[in-house]
Specification:
Largest sheet: 7 strands, parallel
Distance between the termini: 80 Å
Number of helices: 12
CATH architecture: 3-Layer(aba) Sandwich
Strand content: 5-15%
Shape: globular
Number of strands: 7
Structural class: alpha/beta
Radius of gyration: 26 Å
CATH class: Alpha Beta
CATH topology: Rossmann fold
């Protein structure tokens, strides 16, 4: 048909056709990254963050998880000691240097809390060995009690590392932050997720959880702990134990007894969590909780 138009009209039509085909409005919505990153498309982005990890988890038959929370700042005992040795050495060379004094204080704190990195690693080894002992009943292996962390450094790394130590798979739910952050190297490749929305990340933490295990930490750890406590208190999630390592730390950081005394929580709310001292004690508490609640996974495979 193009040959029936005069040259000027044909040129105009061709020019306008190219403009239309290259216009932003003509891009398919699911290929339009400007649109997908707009404020109006936020509900769709949130939905995608729900669906993508869920699709992968279902395909890989991840049925239940054990969540490990804790500080991103902690390192293992050997690394902490080397950091303290170096800080002391620097301070000896310049005893009046305020920066070196701060480094020594910081390194001493890391040494003090480093055992919790080691405990998180040991705990994840215990859980992951159990995960690998569960035999498939239908020809396909359901994965239960899979270690799941926030995917970052510190306690998160320790837990993923513990699973890695015994050849088990583990999950990391990383979050996009203003400060550059990378997933720790011990997460299973197929379960290394990145989230933009904290709320959706929390959903995936809680969705399959069989236990929340919490080590000392800061704002992020508090946020995750109290999210879990609130959901359990209000019966908005499945029954599970909440395990706290380092009773001294938590009692200093949060005056639980005063919350009861002031009437802000009920005395029975203190039963929502339990303090433990060792990885073995934590695992036994989880096993006992699910046995007492007749969890079919536990009763079928362990008792």
């Amino acid at each position: 048909m193009q040959e029936f138009f005069d040259a000027d009209e044909a040129a105009l039509r061709e020019k306008n056709k190219k403009l239309l085909l290259n216009s932003a409005s003509y891009v398919l919505a699911y290929n339009d990254f400007v649109f997908l990153n707009s404020a109006d498309a936020r509900p769709f982005r949130m939905q995608l963050e729900v669906v993508k990890p869920e699709q992968i988890m279902k395909a890989e038959r991840i049925r239940s998880t054990v969540i490990v929370f804790g500080s991103a700042r902690l390192v293992d005992s050997s690394v902490a000691q080397r950091m303290l040795d170096q800080a002391n050495k620097n301070l000896e060379s310049e005893p009046d240097n305020p920066a070196y004094k701060r480094d020594v204080k910081k390194a001493r704190t890391l040494v003090e809390f480093a055992p919790y990195y080691d405990m998180a690693r040991d705990f994840a080894q215990i859980v992951s060995r159990f995960n690998q002992q569960i035999a498939p009943k239908d020809g396909y292996a359901n994965h239960d009690f899979v270690i799941c962390t926030g995917g970052g450094p510190g306690i998160m790394e320790a837990a993923n590392r513990g699973a890695y130590d015994v050849g088990a798979r583990s999950i990391g739910l990383n979050i996009k932050l203003p400060v550059e952050q990378y997933p720790n190297p011990y997460i299973s490749n197929e379960f290394c997720f990145q989230f933009h929305y904290f709320g959706i990340r929390k959903l995936h933490f809680m969705l399959r959880a069989k236990a929340l295990v919490v080590f000392p930490g800061g704002f992020g750890t508090f946020d995750e702990l109290f999210e879990g406590l609130t959901l359990r208190q209000t019966h908005r999630m499945q029954q599970l134990p909440i395990i706290l390592f380092a009773e001294d730390y938590w009692r200093k950081a949060v005056n639980f007894d005063y919350l009861v005394e002031s009437g802000m929580i009920a005395e029975e709310d203190l039963d929502l969590f339990v303090f433990v001292k060792t990885p073995e004690e934590a695992w036994n508490a989880i096993m006992k909780y699910h046995k007492d609640h007749n969890d079919p996974i536990i009763t079928e495979y362990c008792f």
